[in-house]
Amino acid sequence: MAERTRQRVPKRIAQTVLHSLKAGVVPRIGLPYITVGRKDEIAALLHDFGVVAEGGASFHFIVGRYGAGKSFLLQAVRNYVMDKNFVVVDGDLSPERRLQGTKGQGLATYRELIQNLATKTRPEGGALTLILDRWINTVLQEVASETGLDEDDPQFTAAVDKKIGAVIASLSELVHGFDFAKLLNMYYHAYIDDDDETKAKVVKWFRGEYTHKTEAKQELGVSIIIDDSDWYEYLKLFALFFRQAGYAGLVIMIDELVNIYKIPNSISRQYNYEKILTMYNDTLQGKAKYLGILMCGTPQTVEDRRRGVYSYEALRSRLTEGKFAHVGAQDMYAPVIKLEPLTAEEMLVLTEKLADMHARLYGYDRQITEEELAKFIKIEYGRIGADTKITPREVIRDFIELLDIVYQNPKTTVSDLLDSEQFTGMDDDSTDDGGGKQEKNYTEFTI
């Protein structure tokens, strides 16, 4: 094997990555150190986001069974687009967070997205106030540069008002744009006047935290609030505003679409699928600009014609594959991107990265050899049905557990564990992969 290029991963990041992966969740930091494969998928999505940055819009479903790497791909793309100056909002659906609801579930999703609003300089989220302040500072700097006036000059203030007004005018023509623009103008004047109380109220409104129109009317003078029915319209407004504020656009990432599939009431499910159709049509018909949308779900969540996305005929007719798509020759520009399993070679590269990271974290020279790495992968991919059923999550969890046990038990060797019946044995249990269960036809690695 070719000489490895080892990256020195900070221990804080290494610990977060290894602990997250062992627990079966995707870390929000450190992904560049362990990303392998998915080159075609990432390239296709980044191409689309290039169009978004030019004023277009895009919508994709990322489909794969549990543990196939949907969330990992989503987080990897999140890092890429933030590097390209996009604003990103991401969130998971749940029984309390849906796309549409009558008891605040849609608004709860909006609040989750806004809470996680992130930029390159604020990747952990909570970047709304940062963006608003940066926008105003940028306008002040541009006016100062263009006019050469001092900030205390009344003409300077008039020039700034004119420039702010141009941004606001471009938004006020859109649905709900008038009140949105009014609040932006209110925030600007509160910023200039050092009125922190008013700034906080405006941010509260933008975050969807007003629950009654009378309260918003009394505090801000606007007779409208963000609610279940129109939260998506405000994300479209934010996309245009972020562009005006100097960003490339807005990317919305929604995971755990299975929680719509699990809604027991068929009418409620249909309302949620209707919201997806609205978002899909907006992006393809030019009704949204500077906006990219990614949604993740299992194959059954999307393809089940009884209660999945395809149960809504208007979506099924738009999303189903054509006659030429087949495994190994996917159309990555199609609205539905199906994740194929990582190859054994890609998993070998990933386990090697994880072995180096583990040794770095715990301060020892890596013990597992390249031959043992290859043997581990060979056993994992040699199980019955592994060609279609194996997922990165299961392999990674097994591998990190292997490293942990060998490190904590010096008398135990990697070969001992690889040759053990618990690891090489198989279990023919299988369950459904869609509405919450997970296919599995081999034993998990337990010692």
Overall description:
The structure is a single chain. The protein is α/β, with parallel strands linked by helices. It has 20 helices and 5 strands. It has a 5-stranded parallel beta sheet with strand order 2-3-4-1-5, sandwiched between helices. Helix 2 (39-52) crosses helix 3, helix 7 (177-192) runs antiparallel to helix 8 and helix 15 crosses helix 16 (370-381). It is globular and about 80 Å long. The protein starts with 10 loop residues before the first helix and ends in a 23-residue tail after the last helix. Residues 1-5 and 426-447 have low confidence and may be disordered.
List the helices and strands and how they pair.
Layout: H1 11-22, H2 39-52, E1 57-63, H3 70-83, E2 87-92, H4 105-115, H5 128-147, H6 154-172, H7 177-192, H8 196-206, H9 213-220, H10 231-244, E3 250-255, H11 258-261, H12 266-284, E4 291-297, H13 299-303, H14 313-319, E5 336-338, H15 344-362, H16 370-381, H17 386-389, H18 392-408, H19 414-418, H20 421-424
Parallel strand pairs: 1-4, 1-5, 2-3, 3-4
Helix pairs in contact: 1-15, 2-3, 5-6, 6-7, 7-8, 15-16, 15-18
First-to-last CA distance: 30 Å
Please state the CA-atom Rg, rounded to the nearest Å.
Answer: 25 Å
Structure summary, number of beta strands: 5
Record the strand order, biggest sheet. Answer: 2-3-4-1-5
Major sheet description: 5 strands, parallel
Helix content: 40-55%
Order of helices and strands: HHEHEHHHHHHHEHHEHHEHHHHHH
Gross geometry: globular
Strand content: 5-15%
Number of helix segments?
A: 20
Mean pLDDT: 86
Low-confidence runs of at least 5 consecutive residues: 1-5, 426-447
Structural class of the helices, strands and pairings?
alpha/beta
